[in-house]
Amino acid sequence: MPNKKYKIAVIQLNLNDVAENNLKKCLSWVRDAASQGAEVISLPELYSSHYFCQSEDVNNFALAEPLYSTSFIAFSALAKELGVVIIVPFFEKRMAGIYHNSAYIIDTDGSEAGLYRKMHIPDDPHFYEKFYFTPGDLGFKTIPTQKGKIGTLICWDQWYPEAARLTALQGAEVLFYPTAIGWHPLEKEQYGENQQGAWMNVMKGHAVANGVYVAAANRIGLEQYIEGTAGIQFWGSSFIAGPQGEILAQASTDKEEILIAEVDLDLQENVRQNWPFFRDRRIDAYGDITKRAID
């Protein structure tokens, strides 16, 4: 019988360090989350390094790792030891010249339940991800695990209702969003509140429109490693929302934290029965959604 209830966690961390230190740190925090009862645990985007996409520098490709190497080996062993599901976002070297912003979904026995490659790739000031990442080619997927059916999207995917919908339609109970998002410090006073609010509101909207739990795991801290720039101040604010967009757990903007909340599948079903958005979808009228623009 599927689990009717299980606990999920997102871990909010400062990851402005070298890969070896970040790996040790994240292993420790995952262990702490499991000790608090978490059964499905997500790390932030690109957990193993500082956010290197602030510049276009070929030397940063050295931060990437092949599939099933360092990160998979370490977290696979930990997942098996603890009997938990772990979402591990990492910089994937697929082959020379092809790199992805990816995430393992590692099951309770240490096996790979699934792999997701970030589909939407941004190119904004100090978020120069198109220089590094080939767009994902695995599509939007719900991954069955021993704890529940997990949908994993990554950061910029947060802004796209199509991504949330297509994942939820495959049976996802939770949409996880490993994230690296923050303020340009010089813009924070003027735009910061609205930017942060929009980020949270769009994901709460995905929860409501799809009747799913949503969990966002962001990083914190000022990462200012390029001379002459103000860097990025990651805003934390990780959260877990229920299927009506209700906030079940919310992190600060500046502290390392573990957030834990319970997924209740009976509640989810009840919400969908009373708000039957899937039932009333006019799939016969949505053909134009695949066009770039409706001219």
TrEMBL record:
<dbReference type="Pfam" id="PF00795">
    <property type="entry name" value="CN_hydrolase"/>
</dbReference>
<dbReference type="InterPro" id="IPR003010">
    <property type="entry name" value="C-N_Hydrolase"/>
</dbReference>
<feature type="domain" description="CN hydrolase">
    <location>
        <begin position="6"/>
        <end position="265"/>
    </location>
</feature>
<dbReference type="InterPro" id="IPR050345">
    <property type="entry name" value="Aliph_Amidase/BUP"/>
</dbReference>
<dbReference type="InterPro" id="IPR036526">
    <property type="entry name" value="C-N_Hydrolase_sf"/>
</dbReference>
<dbReference type="GO" id="GO:0050126">
    <property type="term" value="F:N-carbamoylputrescine amidase activity"/>
</dbReference>
<keyword id="KW-0378">Hydrolase</keyword>
<dbReference type="GO" id="GO:0033388">
    <property type="term" value="P:putrescine biosynthetic process from arginine"/>
</dbReference>
<protein>
    <submittedName>
        <fullName>Carbon-nitrogen hydrolase</fullName>
    </submittedName>
</protein>
